[in-house]
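forwarding from the other thread:

> can someone predict this with zinc ion?

sure thing
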Amino acid sequence: MSIKRAQEVLSLARSVVVFTGAGVSAESGVPTFRGGGGTAVWRGMDAMQLSSARMVGEDLKLVWEWFEYRRDLLARCEPNLAHLAIAAWESRFPEFTLVTQNVDGLHDKAGSSAAIELHGNLWRGRCLECSSRVPLDMTPHVEIPPACRDCGGNLRPDVVLFGEYLPAESFEKARESAGRADVCLVVGTSALVYPAAEIPLVCAQRGATVIEVNPEPSGIGGSRSIMIAGRAGDVLPLL
Ligand SMILES: [Zn+2]
């Protein structure tokens, strides 16, 4: 029933925003490392401690070792049917924007060309001196921390760490797209954490239809939203 309604809404849509989160990655086997409660995940340290702005200042080498470990796990993960469906939607609608909270690069790998990455990307480094961004196609690195090609400064992972704000420019771009959309699809995220939660909210407030696809929909889009309970990889190809 709700799938049919979602299909109808999408068939008329001119401007679509898709907002994805960890659930989409989890279906590709990407570990989330968000056990909480101080769960030891790597060398006896928890992810919050390792992926923190403070640790970049204290032990950059350790931060790199941790991210190299994560990239190594990721290199074996493939995009799933949800990633592929979203990539195909780029050419289906007159205006289309993908906004993701995921840092694994699986949307790129599936063929999405212009994902707005609110939390950065594990496959990119950023220079601590000149802020240059550098693709990290190679893992493991011979030398860590790797050096910037422009100025020789140390690179850090170009992801948003605990204790840091979302990149203002990406967030603004995402909010602008949300302000123009007539449909917003929220996939694999309960989208309850601000400021990211604002994206579907901006859509809902201006009367756009919010379609939520989650195993247990949270009702983020309010009473007018279409909620579809299910896995992204099962539901999105049907839409
Ligand atoms: Zn530099």
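The chain has a mean pLDDT of 90. thats all i got for now
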